[in-house]
Write a structure and sequence with these properties.
The complex is a heterodimer of chains A (111) and B (113). Chain A has 111 residues and is mainly β. Chain A contains no helices and eleven strands. The N and C termini of chain A lie far apart (41 Å). In chain A, 35% of the residues are buried. Chain B has 113 residues and is mostly beta strands. Helix content of chain B is 0%, strand content 55%. In chain B, strands 2, 4, 5, 6, 9, 10 and 11 form a seven-stranded mixed beta sheet that branches. In chain B, strands 1-3-8-7 form a four-stranded antiparallel beta sheet, with no helix packed on it. In chain B, a hairpin with an 8-residue loop joins strand 9 and strand 10. The chains are: A mainly beta (111), B mainly beta (113). At the A-B interface, strand 5, strand 9 and strand 10 of A face strand 5 and strand 10 of B.
Chain lengths: 111, 113
């Protein structure tokens, strides 16, 4: 069964600290992996999209990594800001137009 | 929200009543999607459209129908709302399938009493 699992479910960090969110997937075949940020009450916004051949991609303070052999991805946030408080969703696409969404990690950044 | 609006943004209705949610885009993207988001679940695809009058079912399509008579509008209808359809509904658009990004609307919170 195609599944995307994320950990931790929730995370609290202090402003200025770094953090890493994890994503494990069992989707096959594999086309691409995406990370989305979803602010409370808003729709998800894309952070990165990575294909099989890419193992790292950055978007400002956000860096995503992909290990297609172990079917794992991580999202690293550097020097966190209060505005990083949101849910971060890992999404994996098989070789179709479908997306399989994880349940997200809820990140709270406190001053 | 990438030129996507959803209406209404909030709705409370009673079991058994019909409900129509509207998604409107100004990006002229070919593909449009309806998802629902529930606690403990990732977003799940209800229906999608790959062109005017061309639609197909997603993984949770039971109890829902869609229509697309114009490129810019994609309607989601609950023929007879049930409490299990209480959810947040998101519309998304994309230029094409594959690696192309999906852009999401702001969502509609629907409560069925």
């Amino acid at each position: 069964k195609n599944q995307v699992e994320q950990s931790p479910q929730s995370l609290i960090i202090l402003e200025g600290k770094n953090c890493t969110l994890q994503c494990n997937y069992t989707v096959s075949p594999f086309s691409n992996l995406r990370w989305y940020k979803q602010d409370t009450g808003r729709g998800p916004v894309s952070l990165t999209i990575m294909t099989f051949s890419e193992n790292t991609k950055s978007n400002g303070r956000y860096t995503a990594t992909l290990d297609a052999d172990t079917k794992q991805s991580s999202l690293h946030i550097t020097a966190s800001q209060l505005s990083d408080s949101a849910s971060y969703i890992c999404v994996v696409s098989p070789n179709t137009d479908k997306l399989i969404f994880g349940t997200g990690t809820r990140l709270q950044v406190f001053p | 929200d990438a030129g996507i609006t959803q209406s209404p943004r909030h709705k409370v209705t009673e079991t058994g009543t019909p409900v129509t949610l509207r998604c409107h885009q100004t990006e002229n993207h070919r593909y449009m999607y309806w998802y629902r988001q529930d606690p403990g679940h990732g977003l799940r695809l209800i229906h999608y459209s790959y062109g005017v009058k061309d639609t197909d079912k997603g993984e949770v399509s039971d109890g829902y129908s869609v229509s697309r008579s114009k490129t810019e509008d994609f309607l989601l209808t609950l023929e007879s709302a049930t409490s299990s359809q209480t959810s947040v509904y998101f519309c998304a658009i994309s230029e094409s399938i594959g690696i192309n990004e999906q852009f999401f609307g702001p969502g509609t919170r629907l409560t069925v009493l």
